[in-house]
Structure formats: structure tokens, C-alpha cells
Sequence to fold (122 residues):
Amino acid sequence: MTTFTLHDLEQRVAERAQASADVSYTRALLDRGVAQCAKKFGEEAIETVLAALEEDRGRLTAEAADLIYHLLVLLKARGIALADVEAVLAERTRQSGLAEKAARGTRREVKSKTRPGQAKDK
Fold:
């Protein structure tokens, strides 16, 4: 078992963000902006889902690693530390998962708006 942690990966992302885009994929992604980082994260999320459906443990593990890396790059692009995400997770553990999910669903419904020409769900 390895001792490499998400915090180690976050540190690696921070270090690579300081390098030149000529030698650092991380820096190149960050230079392309938040939208590109988000797009890449979305692509990796889809690849992770597809790998899960294939029931290929090795592929799913590799895609999950890519997904986590791209999440940390996206968070870096927005100036959000892994510790900030951990704090939200810690707060959520104070109640049951179902109660927490219901509370988040209510907040999202309030924020969500129907686009012109889009039917509202009934």
C-alpha cells in the first residue's frame, strides 16, 4: 500500500503550477483558464463513468486517478484548497446523508432557473 495522499497530489499540482507550460501539463491547463480546466474535468468524469460501466477494475482505477487529478487542478484554478473541500465534507457528516442531501436539494431548487423554451418539470 502506498503512502501517497490527496494532499501529496495537491502539493504536486501546486509545484507543477509554478513550472513553465513547456514542461508542465498542469501549468498548461491552468494557463488555458477555469473553463478549460472544467471542461477537462467533465471529460474525465465521463470517462470514469464509462469505465465503471465496463466493470474493468484497472481502467476504473486509472480513470478515477485522472478525475481526482483534474479536480485538484480545477480547484487550484479557482483558488480553492483541498482543506476547504474537506471542511465542507466534515460539516456534512454532522447529519445523516439523506438529511444532508435533502437540504442541498432544496438549496439547488431555489438557485435553479428554467431557460427560455425549456419546460419546467412537473
Observations:
- The chain has a mean pLDDT of 88.
- The CA atoms of residues 50 and 60 lie 8 Å apart.
- The chain has two domains: 1-80, 83-112.
- DSSP finds six helices and no strands in the chain.
